[in-house]
């Protein structure tokens, strides 16, 4: 298994699919990364050279907030909303949807009394 940014990837995966295993990178962003570096996205991960892996890791570190850093930013944002006692903060505390979704017939899991947001 090859690693990139301390994440291990299966070598038989294509590059665009393997990059999606990193938290914060989806299909569109992995396509953009491959286009920026001029790497074929259908290339298998085990066919990448060391220089290509280094270019990918440099690009991700410099331009994108991904992985643990992204998770910490999300957690800090939620904690800030709770601390300033905003409406969204209260919804996070109660484990309810925060962006105006309906809760009368939907969001049954969010409204379940035993499931609370782990913050």
Radius of gyration: 19 Å
CATH names the topology of the largest domain as Helicase, Ruva Protein, domain 3
Helix content: 40-55%
End-to-end distance: 33 Å
Q: Describe it for me?
A:
With 119 residues, the chain is mainly alpha-helical. It has 2 domains: 2-64, Helicase, Ruva Protein, domain 3 (Orthogonal Bundle); 68-111, Ribosomal protein S13/S18, C-terminal domain (30s ribosomal protein s13, domain 2). The chain has 6 helices and 2 strands, in the order ββαααααα. Strands 1-2 form a two-stranded antiparallel ribbon. It starts with a strand and ends in an 8-residue tail after the last helix. The model has no long low-confidence stretch (mean pLDDT 86).
What would the keywords be for this entry?
119 residues; two-stranded antiparallel ribbon; mainly alpha; Helicase, Ruva Protein, domain 3; elongated; 2 domains; 30s ribosomal protein s13, domain 2
Summarize the structure.
The chain has 119 residues and is mostly helical.
Helices, strands, pairings?
Layout: E1 2-4, E2 7-9, H1 15-19, H2 27-37, H3 50-63, H4 67-83, H5 87-94, H6 108-111
Antiparallel strand pairs: 1-2
